[in-house]
Please model this.
Amino acid sequence: MITTQEDHRAKNVHPEYYDAAAAQIQPRPFPSPVNDPQWLSSAVDWFSQAETIMEVGSGRGEFAEALVRKGGPKRYYLVDMSQGMLDLVRDRAGKLSKNLELVFVHADIDSDPLNQIPDNSLDKIIMINAFQDVNPYSALKTFRRIISPKGFFRVNVLSREFRDENYHDEENFNKETGYFYLTRSHFADVKPLGYFTDKKGDRIPYYRILKSYYRKDLDRVFKECGFEILSAEPILLSKEVLLRAKTMAWNKSALRQEILSKYGGYPASIDVIARPI
Ligand SMILES: C[S@@+](CC[C@H](N)C(=O)[O-])C[C@H]1O[C@@H](n2cnc3c(N)ncnc32)[C@H](O)[C@@H]1O
Model:
């Protein structure tokens, strides 16, 4: 069990962390399903069948670029708390868009209720590799207000069952809370979010807290915020996606090799599709 000093009402990651990631000259792709061509293509097909859509945490814009190239919707809101990331998406997708209106919203979904978006106005909302960063209640309550009664919300969520089953002695994972502490920042000028004390008694800085969820807790939180989960399928990230993301010593770790051969990929998150109730 690790002891931390964070304030649980505080953020899991500061926008400066992502601004620094956006400013990298040689960016490291995130270990995200958007970097798996098959997942990307099927999610874009699903998302493009709508008129008004919103993506939260659009990052460097891999999904936005693919969606804009495919076309279909009329208005696409792109929300991110990092201005640096939003600028990257604007550069990447803005010039490709012809009949699709792109609306860039610089907002932190943990505290901003997105009042500029009308009630019940969105057909589809998507959040890829970002739910672990946010306060689920704030985000879901906002989504519930702006989603159409017949709309859908799709999000990939880190599985706590997977972590419990496979990580027995991981220093950075708190089994009591399901939080994973990211102790490396590749950006020199980013301040730590907090510190934890490891088994040796050393004070370790961390830069991001990634929240994982048990399926039953997810059902409860979604229900409390007015959503019903329709499906939740594991997403298998391939070894290639992980290697490109340079996820910590991926190819050197025996445990990770074991996970790959056990599951045929890395099933760290589940692909949730929900609708308002
Ligand atoms: C790990 S990156 C994932 C980016 C991209 N969706 C992908 O899958 O590669 C998370 C993104 O979510 C954004 N983000 C994190 N917390 C947020 C919040 N509370 N409000 C708005 N955006 C947030 C970050 O700035 C970043 O662009």
Observations:
- Residues 18, 30, 32, 34, 56-59, 62, 79-82, 85, 108-110, 128-130, 133-134 surround S-adenosylmethionine (CB under 6 Å).
- The chain has one domain: 3-276.
- The chain has a mean pLDDT of 91.
- The chain is about 30% helix and 30% strand.
